[in-house]
Amino acid sequence: MCSEEYGYNDSSIEMNQQDTEVHAITDQQCDFASIDLVQRRLNQRHLQMYVHTRLLSLEHSVQGFS
C-alpha cells in the first residue's frame, strides 16, 4: 500500500538522487502512519477493555444491593 516503485533512469541503472530522497521520505511517512495506526488500535482496544471491566464492576455492585 505505502511502497512505491523507485524511478530508474532508462539509460543507466543509477537512481536519481532526488527521487531517492522523495521515496525515502514517503516510505518513512508510511512507516510512521502504520505505527500511529497500530497505536490507535491498541489504545482503542485498551479503552474497550477498561470500559468493559468498569461495566462488570458496576454490574456486580448493583447485584450486591439487590
TrEMBL record:
Protein name: Uncharacterized protein
Species the sequence originates in: Rhizopogon vesiculosus
